[in-house]
Amino acid sequence: MQDLFENAKRAANTAVERAAWEADKMRRATARQREMDLAQRERATLIEQLAIVVLDLDKRGQLTQDALKMLAQRLRILDSDIATGQSDIQTIRSETFKPGTISIQVTRTNVPEAQMPCPTCGKLIRQSASFCPSCGARLN
Ligand SMILES: [Zn+2]
After folding, report:
1. How many angstroms is it from 61 CA to the middle of ligand 1?
2. How far apart are the CA of 138 and the centre of ligand 1, in A?
3. In whole angstroms, what is the distance from residue 49 CA to residue 131 CA?
4. CA Rg, the chain, in Å?
5. Mean pLDDT estimate for the chain
6. DSSP of the chain, one letter per residue?
7. How many C-beta neighbours within 10 Å does residue 14 have?
8. How far is the CA of 140 from the centre of ligand 1 (A)?
9. From the CA of 51, how far away is ligand 1's center (Å)?
10. Chain centroid offset of residue 116 CA
11. Is 8 exposed, middle or buried (0-12, 13-18, 19+ CB in 10 A)?
């Protein structure tokens, strides 16, 4: 009788643990996806700025390699951020449940990435952004 009770208790605990684990997994994948959506938006803005700067410099006969290099570098950093984020999402989605590991998973805070005001223009941006998508200021 005692064994039966213990078994039932263990099964219930595992089911609860598994549900919590699944919820945590989904929460982390969604949070990372949200960050990547912001990064993609940042990328679109950057490409737009790139075109504007290139066209403007060209119009004034001042299109230099340095100006192009700086913009290309920003784009490369952002692309690498996006690639990392997408591989993180794949990793999270491919995680499999292991009973007894949930204490680590549930206590982790997986809030979506915080935003902060850009120190230059004040617009709210991702905390991990390399550049302000609004004014282009370098952030880290
Ligand atoms: Zn800014």
Report:
1. 27
2. 9
3. 12
4. 23
5. 84
6. -HHHHHHHHHHHHHHHHHHHHHHHHHHHHHHHHHHHHHHHHHHHHHHHHHHHHHHHHHHTT---HHHHHHHHHHHHHHHHHHHHHHHHHHHHHT----TT-HHHHHHS--PPPPEEE-TTT--EEETT-SB-TTT--B--
7. 15
8. 13
9. 18
10. 15
11. exposed
- Whole-number Å distance, alpha carbon 62 to ligand 1 midpoint, is 24
**d(Cα 82, Cα 68) in Å, to the nearest integer?**
21
**Percentage of the chain surpassing pLDDT 90?**
22
Q: If you measure from the C-alpha of residue 56 to the centroid of ligand 1, how many angstroms do you get, rounded to a whole number? A: 20
Ligand 1 midpoint to CA 33 (Å): 23
DSSP-assigned states of every residue in 96-122: ---TT-HHHHHHS--PPPPEEE-TTT-
In tens, the pLDDT along 97-107 reads: 887 766 554 44
Residue identified by tokens 């390699």 is: 65
For residue 136, the CA-to-ligand 1 centroid distance in Å is 6
What is the mean pLDDT of the segment spanning 31-49? 90
